[in-house]
Amino acid sequence: MRPLPSRNSGMNVADSLRPLGCLAITFVVLCGSLTAAETDIVGYWNQPAFGTVLGPGIAAVFGFEEDSTERADGPAPVDYIGIPLNEEARARALSYDGSLLSVPEHQCMPHPAQYSFWGPANLRITEELDDNLDIVAYHVAGTFRRADRVIYLDGRPHPSEYAPHTWAGFTTGKWVGNTLVTTTTHIKWGWIRRNGVPASDQATVTTFYTRNGNVLTVTWMVHDPLYMTETYTKSVDFIEAPRVTAAQFDTPATGQAGGAFFKCFPGEELAQTDPYKVPHYLPWANPFVNEVAGKLHLLPRVLLGGAETAYPEYREQLRGSR
Amino acid sequence: MNSLRILFVILCAGASLTAQENAGVHAMKVQGNVWIITGAGANIAMQAGKEGVLLVDTGAAGMTDKVLAAVREVSDGPIRYIVNTSISADHIGGNAALAVLPGGLTNGKGRGGPTPNIIAQENVLLRMSTPGPEKKAPYPTDAWPTDGYMAAHRNLFFNGEVVDILREPAAHSDGDSIVYFRGSNVLVAGDIFTTTSLPMIDRKLGGTAKGLLDSLNRMLDIAVPENMQEGGTYIIPGHGRVCDEADLVEYRDMLHEIGDRMRDLVKVQHLNLAEVKSKRPVLGWEGRYGRPEWSSDMFIETLFEEFREK
Fold first, then answer.
1. Reported pTM
2. CATH code of the domain made up of B2-245
3. Do A188 and B247 touch (CB under 8 A)?
């Protein structure tokens, strides 16, 4: 059983009860220790799995059932429903051609912080301690291509506006009750859906880590003033796992080539006459605008998303569009 | 018209520093022997070591004292070399003040030495020194490059590493250079790449979208990420934050896509300028990079002129 984070935890229960005396404090500390098991996020966390079995008694470790359209090959082109994107984001999304991933400079990009928990992830969360055994930071490893996130709890400021942005961004956090609330800035441009819906480098992300028993729920809110008209919120559940089932990404269970997730070097995937070609569509000539809409018998505009498409009332418009 | 506007922007840059840039002039370590000095107009790159200091660009006029203070936060050595990446006023504004300092020293210790050698592509020297209608050079002699190079590149070995000065023809202007510190693995892009504006193509100074795109691709060839398309070669843009290859990729992709949109509108659909603007070919990056001094419309007008000529 791990100790409750003693500093920056946001759980100053002992302080508030100090006047009640040592007995009360002892009681609270004991209770706190019990609570700690529920609020501690250190450990191994797997995504609920499809059913892959690695060996006798060893549960599956890869693949999860939430948001199934995001898994494997990802969402269909030009399906932005439920995303509060604005016209700028829509124009970029309509320009997206999946062949972009064949460009050498795009081949090794990990999922950015605006998206990463939505992708494949077997989390290994560790803590970094100072000389006094207070927690300086949590290290969250294991999202796609190891854009490991460090969550600083020691009150340090975010970097200069001139500092580089990274895929994981720069994160600070504090405990609020049983939830670790973090703020991430300095993120690179990226995506919030794998069909080209962009996220800008001006976006910030608020993430909530809430543990309930052996389930860790990660909820994150993307605030993107350039591409979103509203905050975009998603959540994913992880299940506590013994170390043996926390597969590394270079195991066959991931469905990826051995080692491909650890160190990625780009190569030539297509024979191009122009080595600097950037595959994309003209936003006014995307050939997939009608594809999903046609299959679902919806008007194409429905699939173009927008904040209104995230709300239940939009169902009425969907009915009207058939 | 656009060229006049952008020239105006460039000439006024020293006087039109944003609030962000006025907030303070600071040196921040990038990696190796290289620092970035921010807040003095355009970004300044500084390489410092046992042999002294090399500056890439000198910021806006009137900022030299603060720039020198930032230099002295890092090094007490003499300024031996200055490289100008272009003729933009917020890149060369400190030339004249720095060029007369013996060895660039301002610390009162009395050490002398030669004044800094100012290196720039020859067209920078020509534009700074060629008399205008009033038979007067646009810039004082002290500000002129002392070494206007004409070749495709110029190399130095300074402070233990090779410094490549590479000519980038017809990009932001016809006098652009990028600077690559091989040992430190830091690339300085000048105004060919910024994180704060749409590509600044000054047609009056010989800039072209094609040349700028070629230059971005060349920089991508130089830059190598450390892992997962991150880190490795760091890039100091003309304005804005320190970047790596992934940021440069984003900028290159943007110009590539906007160029293809313009090609379609101008060469295939044969639209006139007003019609092209109505199609908003910069949509997707208007909010990120557009700004009053170099707006989406001004950028479109510049591209329209170039694509109409092709």
1. 0.87
2. 3.60.15.10
3. yes
